[in-house]
Amino acid sequence: MERRRPVGSGALGPVGFGVLGPVVAERDGAALALKGPRHRAVLARLIVARRRVVPVARLVDDLWDDPPAGAVGAVQTFVGALRRALEPERPPRAPARLLVTEGPGYALRAESGAVDAWRFEAAVTGAARLSPGEALDRLEEALALWRGPAYAEFAADGWARGERSRLAELRLQAVERRAAAHLALGRAAEAVPDLDAHTAAHPWREDAWRLLALALYRTERQADALAVLRRARSTLAGRLGLDPGPALRRLEHDILTQSPHLRPDDGRLTAPESEAADTVAARLWARATQAYDRTVAAGARARLESTVGLLRGLAVTGGGGLAAAREHRMAAVVAAEESGDPELTARVIGAYDVPAIWSRGDDPELAGRLVAAAERTLAALPPGAEHAAARCRLLATVALETRGTDAPRGPAAARQAEAIARRLDDPALLAFALNGTFMQSFTRAGLAPRRDRTGAELVALAARHALVTSEVLGHLVRLQARSALADFPAADRHAAAVDRLAERHELPLAGVFTQWYGALRLAAAGERDEAETAYRAAAARLDGAGMPGLERGLLPLALLCLRIGGADAVPVVDPGDDWGPYRPWIEPLARLGAGQGAEARAALRELMEPPRDHLYEALCCLEAVAALALGERPVLERVHARLRPAAGELAGAGSGLVTLGPVDDWLARIAGSLRGGPTR
């Protein structure tokens, strides 16, 4: 196992960990004694958590199907033994620096270079940005780290299953990227043996078949290349009931016609290794836009549809790009409507399928105009099955743009869009419709399990069909839902998946949500000082991200939730802060803090039901804080009724941003007050 210099331990060398094969730890080339299998299981479980805290209760559940009475003590014993092996020079009673105790559990604070799996992942991800020669070297080093199946001795353990699958998939991608690098360097013959074995072991990998056929063709083995493509077709049909995808079909046609673009680069524009990829991209962009301007008439309707495609790409860049996309989107819709062609208008409206994760819109006035345009277009579209996809996209747009409201049209549009998409069996269309379904799943408290199912379908669907932004959306949906259900290990895995995809595909906005989630994790673990620091850092990143519907009032709200966090006293709030849309729920607390009981009571009684969005339960709890302090029975009764469906969840955590603790605690406090007992 190759080592780097991660966390040190006194005068001894650094500790390295290996999980790409049997789980091991070593120092200075010598394996450390990890005692029994459960000791290694604890270590492996903490590595899977990637520096995050794993509660003791979770460790117990993961280590035993039927935990014995002394399971917690046994875990503590395992941890103690591991600490002695990892940090033998640590003085008695001195705090551990590597395997640390935090909040309700333990975390392994290994640095990024300390674990072979983390180095492997970083190398494979980084290789995508390198020249073929550099990428080949990096991928060879990465693949050499594997000593066997990841977490080999824990194949039957549920807690390891997701990480094992993820690493196995990443390894398959690395093998294919290595072959692609060989081809890019003109070394097709060197790629053939590995690809031959790779397709035999993993016959569902269409890109592997494509690379093998191309490598054979470039080594003057045209007949063998065609035979491989025929074998791929029969294998896919026989084992999976699938026809070859467009890439394989196109390659077969090109080989039969001996298309010149198969040499030397399979039609892919590559640059000399000395030329930076961004320079090539800039040059290609300039040439393509010049050609477009020359050949597509200024007034052509195709320009409208092309514009929406550009805006869709612009929106996921965040910041000014997202704001500009919003600004120009409506102009494109207006221009399409002015054409008098409802089919064109439907395409222009429906083409903007940028995934949405936050249930409060950034521009309500714009959303209203978009919904009105979509409804007009729905009414104007000719009847007939040929327009079903356009209707689906228009309905999904209505569902997305009416999010956070209590209008019945939103949920109805979401149901209709999803039904049409399933009937048409169009993956991209279904992903768009499921986004609308998700946005309309905040109609009451306690719907996290439903959102989790939607997120799971999005992840699976998007991964199968290479819908990257929808895959990111699915992981974020599940991150939020699992947080609401207090399943932070699962939420951690989804956060890590989001970060990987965002880095690989240049999606900076996704990292905004995972950074806020990191602050939530600290808050949920009771690390309030660290959480406050993390919240302020996350707010700084959100500044200028182009998401005012998320940004306004969020930082003061997060810090307020952190201060409440189960405390008995009514928190003091600063009415001068920018509370944004949350000010009505802050007003009673501000009045209480100023000693204005009558005004606080009046503000509390005037409160409307919170918006049907991610922070519904959190705002209900803020309402409860003031109502408990004032003994307002009608308010407590309505808040209790609203929160009751979310029993068993964490209040506010479904946002993936903040939490006010278990809903059950709030229900108990409210019930106690209603019975005349203690309120806090």
Mean pLDDT: 87
Global morphology: flat
Beta percentage is: under 5%
The percentage helix is: 55-70%
Which blocks of ≥5 consecutive residues have pLDDT under 50? 2-10, 265-279
How many independent structural domains?
A: 4
Main structural class: mainly alpha
Give the number of DSSP strands. Answer: 6
- For the termini, the CA-CA separation is 55 Å
* Major beta sheet summary: 3 strands, antiparallel
What does this structure look like?
The protein is an all-alpha fold and 680 residues long. The protein folds into 4 domains: 1-183, Arc Repressor Mutant, subunit A; 186-267, Tetratricopeptide repeat domain (Serine Threonine Protein Phosphatase 5, Tetratricopeptide repeat); 278-524, Serine Threonine Protein Phosphatase 5, Tetratricopeptide repeat (Alpha Horseshoe); 530-674, no CATH class. Helices cover 63% and strands 3% of the residues. It is built from 30 helices and 6 strands. A 3-stranded antiparallel sheet has the order 1-2-3, with no helix packed on it. Strands 4-6-5 form a 3-stranded antiparallel sheet. Strand 1 (15-18) and strand 2 (24-27) form a beta hairpin. Helix 4 packs antiparallel against helix 5 (132-144) and helix 26 runs antiparallel to helix 27 (597-605). The longest helix is centred in the first third of the chain and has 27 residues, at 158-184. It is flat. 43% of the residues are buried.
